Amino acid sequence: MRLVILVSAALIISLSTTAFAQEWIEFASREERVTCLFPSQPKVTETTWVSEYGAILPARLYSASQGQSRYSLMVVDYNPVERLMVEKSKACPAGTETCQGIGDWGLGYWKNDVRGAIVYATSKFVQRDAKVTHLMWNSQQMVQGQELQLINNADQSRTSASIYMHDNRLIILEATVPRNYPEPVLFTQSLSWLDENGKGIRYATIYINAPDVPKPRGR
C-alpha cells in the first residue's frame, strides 16, 4: 500500500509539472528589453507612473491570471525624467533647493529620482494593507534590485514582488496567489534582460542603473 501511495504521488507531481510547462509561456519584449514567464499571453495596458519627485512617466502594464492567481509586469520609462524635471524646475521659486542645479542631484532632483526609483517603488508595497514577511536586496542576471514578500491583511493572500532598474526602465514584477498557496517566486524570479537587438544579456559585474555610473560590460 505504501508503495502505491508513493508512486501515485510521484505520478501526480510529474503530470502537474508537465501541465505547468505546457501552460506557461516565455514573454519577451524587445522594446522593454526584458523576458519573463507568464501563464498566458498577457494583456497590455498603457498607463502612467508618477515618480518620487513628480515626473509623469509613460508606463505599460502586462497582466495575466491563472485561476485566482494574478501576475503582472509593469515597465516605467525613466528616460524622459531629466527633460521633464529640468522643464519643471524653471517654475521653481528662487532659491528652491531642487532648482539650484547641484551636480550630484540634477535640476529638479532628476538624478535622485532615477537613483531612488527602486526604493520608491518598494515603498509603495510597504504602504499597503499587508504584512511584509521578507525584504531583500537581490540581483537578477547581475542587475541589482529588491525583492519582497507580503501577506495581504484583507484575505491572507500572498504577494511576491521583484523590482529592478535596467536601461533607465523601472521593472516591477508582482504575483498574488491565494492563501496557503506556495510563494509565486517562479514568476518573479524568471526575469531576464535583452540588449537593443533583442538578444539575451548577462553582465560581467553588477549593473547599477544610476546617472554617472558606467554601464558594465555584457556577456
Quick structural gist:
The chain is α+β, with helices and mostly antiparallel strands and 219 residues long. The chain has helices at 2-23, 81-89, 110-115, 117-126, 185-188, and strands spanning 25-29, 34-38, 43-50, 56-66, 69-77, 130-140, 143-152, 158-166, 169-177, 192-194, 200-201. The protein has a single domain, classed as Mog1/PsbP, alpha/beta/alpha sandwich (Protein Transport Mog1p, Chain A).
Describe the structure.
The structure is a single chain. The chain has 219 residues and is α+β, with helices and mostly antiparallel strands. It has a single domain, classed as 3-Layer(aba) Sandwich (Protein Transport Mog1p, Chain A). Helices cover 23% and strands 37% of the residues. The strands form two sheets. A seven-stranded antiparallel beta sheet has the order 3-4-5-9-8-7-6. It is globular and about 55 Å long. The termini are far apart. The relative contact order is 0.15. Mean pLDDT is 88; it is low at 1-21.
